[in-house]
Design goal:
The structure holds 2 protein chains of 2 kinds.
Chain A (H helix, E strand, L loop, with lengths): L1 H14 L14 H9 L7 H23 L14 E9 L2 E8 L7 E6 L3 E5 L10 E7 L8 E7 L4 E6 L10 H23 L2 H6 L3 H29 L8 H25 L7 H32 L7 H19 L9 H12 L1 H11 L3 H26 L9 H18 L5
Antiparallel strand pairs in A: 1-2, 2-5, 3-4, 3-6, 4-5, 6-7
Helix pairs in contact in A: 1-12, 4-8, 4-9, 4-10, 4-11, 6-7, 6-8, 6-9, 6-12, 6-13, 7-12, 8-9, 8-10, 8-11, 8-12, 9-10, 9-13
Chain B lengths: L1 H8 L1 H15 L15 H4 L17 H4 L3 H4 L3 E2 L2 E4 L5 E17 L2 E8 L7 E5 L3 E8 L8 E2 L23 E7 L4 E6 L5 H6 L3 E7 L8 E10 L10 E4 L5 H4 L2 E4 L3 E8 L6 E6 L4 E5 L8 E3 L1 E5 L3 E7 L4 E6 L3 H5 L3 E7 L1
Parallel strand pairs in B: 1-5, 3-6, 5-10, 11-14, 13-21
Antiparallel strand pairs in B: 2-3, 3-4, 6-8, 7-9, 9-10, 11-12, 14-19, 15-18, 15-20, 16-17, 16-19, 20-21
Classes of the chains: A alpha+beta, B mainly beta.
Chain lengths: 429, 344
């Protein structure tokens, strides 16, 4: 127990090495430079230097703009036409596509055919400028469960295809729909996490190294989630290429990592007085794990919500049970740092909600918006959050006074990954 | 860009205009029939249960294209004739290859290589035994030839490396040979890559009438072809007879009840192995390649490989709208379908 407490408090000590010893004590601003140069030359006010440098940069940019622009020849060849289908809505006899021009040139959808038959459609009468979107309403007697290929024929004869895996009436975004999304989010998010937290009394019976092994198991769970979310995020991001695609996942991850690091610092400073208070440290760790898992569950909810909206998700009992089993492990991960604390039931419930409730939010967003770029960002957030938690926990798993990990700890880590892999097979959505 | 936009917004006007063309185009077949234009309202926004059609109820700009399939249907080019010292008929034509953008579906532009600015190229018609001279001018930016089906000397075959061979841009050449055998033939460019030169639109019909002629009939030419607008050589995005997909849906082919109708049917479809012709509600006599005066089959569906052709003869006993189309549903859905409108 003491090992872990020390390790978690060791984190701030390492972090508190700021300001780094290698750096000059000076503030590093203009005044510092002025001081160094001032010994030999005439001292200039920093604002004069700033204005002068800005002027020089402006002048050079101006010259480049005037003379440099002519250096590149006009782009030759046919226009580059790219359309991304951002939303597909199916209602009886009608297929509705919201398309966005993600290429550099305007695109005019002149004709549309579905499964090799021309169809009448409305919308898209004008050439679509870059980044603008429009909605094409196709008159087509699609039938339930059948796959469709929608081909958009542009004014230059290019064909841009969009596949609909299975024709299913898109649920309207009404109260019933949102109610369903809340239920799904509750099933797959809150309930399993709370169920997993029931393991707390069992974990309490464990002592010493066993707790460290359990924490390692949590890390395994989280590492699996992060890797899984990375693949999923990049896959989704491919549909939102114009806004950065995979870059959105990375940016989202970096953002979440930095924000959570900041949150951690803030929590830490607030508990600075009680730095040696084990309870605070354990609760802080549990909360961070819950936040990380919560952000991940939001992304998971997003995928489920959007899959439901486009009819790609069979909401069978087996699938719900699969997600429940899968996410129970997350609950275990949250309570692992609390084995020798006495948190109130309310606090435990709060942790469960932090980890589980975002799934509801994700499901609602996914079902109503279904935007690949947004999905990529949300997945990124989840990944960054998890990475931050893993970085937090890892030091506490090391052998006391060593950088090495015990074999049993490594075993726990591997078991966590395997558990998630095994249970995820039940919920391949 | 602006022309396309004008097109889509002016769809209603275009449709009305098309109806006018249908009436004038019918002059050849006989006096205009005062029937109202058939009600296509269920089809102009097609794609639903009424079958496929282009969006917005629009049609292409025939004027900008420079040809209208209603006119080319019965446009037989007999050439300039004169009598040679030996008493035979000398028939002369001029054919020019031109690169030209064709609106192949409302709002869709296809960079075509055309013969005399149209797709398909002209229908050359002569009588067996005539002496034929075809002056070919290459005003295109690409090398081309004219290769005629039929019987002729090797150096008149219009293929690279034989006789005059390739006719380069800016050059011209006169193909000269005798009209034989009688029947329904075709001509096309034979420069590599062959598929592209054909798929871009360089083909036409070549009819050699038997000396004794055929029974009088309402005659028309239907050239089956397609457009591979993506230039990926994998099938076509559009299928048509006589240049414009769905054209005869918008402007049905008007024929008279009880009158013999003779369709000169040619298949020059590229990238698909076969094409077919199916007539609703009636049967037709079929003369493969037209080289015999005796039909081989009474049928309602015939199949042709690329370069195959034949004459279909039918007399409609009843009035009404009779569909015709490729009996390959994909081709029909993508443009190869139309109507005969049988009038009293």
């Amino acid at each position: 127990m003491t090992e872990r407490t020390e390790s978690t408090t060791a984190q701030p000590e390492r972090g508190e090495a700021d300001p780094r010893p290698g750096e000059p004590v000076g503030t590093g601003d203009g005044r510092g430079v002025g001081n160094a140069a001032g010994n030999r030359a005439v001292r200039l006010p920093v604002w004069v230097l700033g204005v002068a440098v800005t002027a020089v940069i402006g002048l050079v940019l101006g010259v480049l703009a005037v003379f440099g622009a002519g250096t590149l020849p006009e782009r030759a060849g046919p226009p580059i036409e790219e359309l991304a289908v951002e939303r597909t809505v199916l209602s009886p006899g009608v297929i509705e596509l919201t398309v966005r021009n993600i290429g550099p040139d305007p695109v005019q959808v002149s004709q549309v055919f579905v499964n090799d038959a021309f169809v009448g459609f409305t919308g898209g009468g004008e050439p679509l400028e870059r980044l603008r979107s429009t909605t094409l309403v196709l008159d087509y007697p699609w039938s339930d469960g059948s796959p469709y290929v929608v081909s958009m024929l542009t004014s230059t004869g290019l064909v841009i295809e969009h596949e609909i895996a299975a024709g299913v009436t898109t649920p309207p975004a009404d109260a019933d729909f949102f109610g369903r999304m809340v239920l799904i989010g509750t099933y797959i998010g809150i309930i399993p996490v709370l169920l997993g937290m029931l393991f707390l009394p069992v974990l309490r019976q464990a002592r010493g190294r066993s707790v460290k092994i359990l924490l390692a198991l949590s890390v395994g769970v989280l590492v699996y989630l992060a890797i899984d979310a990375t693949f999923e995020g990049f896959e989704l991001a491919a549909g939102g290429a114009v806004f950065g695609g995979g870059l959105l996942v990375i940016l989202g991850a970096a953002f979440a990592y930095l924000v959570l690091m900041g949150v951690d610092r803030w929590l830490r400073s607030r508990t600075a007085a009680a730095r040696r208070d084990d309870a605070a440290g354990g609760m802080r760790l549990a909360l961070l794990i819950a936040i990380g898992i919560g952000l991940h569950n939001m992304a998971e909810g997003l995928v489920i919500g959007s899959a439901y909206a486009v009819g790609e998700l069979a909401l069978g009992a087996a699938l719900i049970i699969g997600f429940v089993i899968n996410n129970v492990t997350e609950g275990v991960a949250i309570v692992a740092p609390l084995t020798d604390r006495r948190p109130t039931w309310l606090a435990l419930l709060g942790l469960g909600l932090v980890a589980g409730a975002p799934a509801i939010l994700g499901a609602v967003i996914g079902g109503a918006v279904n935007n690949p770029a947004l999905a990529a960002v949300l997945f990124g957030l989840g990944i960054g959050a998890i990475a931050q938690v893993v970085v937090q926990i890892l030091p506490s798993l090391r052998e006391h006074g060593s950088r090495a990990f015990d074999a049993r700890v490594l075993g726990g880590l591997a078991l966590g990954v395997l558990l998630m892999y095994g249970t995820s097979l039940f919920s391949a959505a | 860009m602006t022309s396309r936009r004008r097109f889509l917004t002016g769809a209603g006007v275009a449709l009305t205009g098309a109806a006018g063309v249908a009436l004038t185009g019918n002059a050849f077949a006989g006096p205009p029939v005062p029937d109202p234009v058939p009600d296509m309202s269920g089809m102009t926004h097609g794609g639903g249960v009424n079958g496929p059609m282009f969006a917005h109820g629009a049609t292409v700009d025939h004027e900008a294209n420079g040809f209208n399939p209603t006119d080319t249907l019965r446009d037989f080019d007999m050439g300039q004739t004169s009598t040679m010292p030996d008493g035979r008929t000398l028939r002369e034509w001029s054919i020019t290859a031109v690169d030209k953008e064709i609106e192949v579906a409302p709002g869709v532009v296809f960079p075509a290589w055309t013969l005399n600015g149209r797709i398909p190229g002209p229908t050359l018609r002569c009588t067996e035994g005539d002496r034929l001279r075809v002056r070919f001018t290459n005003a295109s930016e690409h090398p081309h030839t004219l290769h005629f089906h039929g019987i002729h000397p090797a150096d008149m075959d219009g293929v690279p490396m034989v006789g005059r061979g390739v006719i380069s841009p800016g050059e011209e050449f006169v193909y000269e040979f005798d009209a034989e055998p009688f029947g329904l033939h075709l001509f096309h460019c034979h420069v590599g890559p062959l598929a592209e030169h054909i798929a871009r639109g360089m083909y036409g019909t070549f009819i050699v009438d038997p000396a004794q002629g055929r029974p009088p009939a309402d005659e028309m030419v239907m050239v089956m072809h397609g457009y591979n607008t993506t230039f990926d050589a994998e099938g076509n995005q559009l299928y048509a007879v006589n240049g414009i997909p769905f054209h005869y849906m918008n402007e049905p082919v008007r024929v008279r009840r009880g009158e013999l109708v003779r369709v000169y049917l040619v298949n020059i479809l590229e990238y698909d192995p076969i094409n077919s012709f199916h007539l609703h509600g009636n049967f037709f006599q079929y003369y493969p390649t037209g080289t015999s005066l005796t039909p081989t089959e009474l049928t309602d569906v015939i199949v042709q490989a690329q370069g195959q052709r034949g004459i279909c003869e039918v007399t409609f006993p009843t009035e009404g709208m009779f569909m015709f189309h490729a009996h390959k549903s994909e081709f029909a859905d993508l443009g190869w379908m139309g109507f005969f409108e049988v009038t009293p």
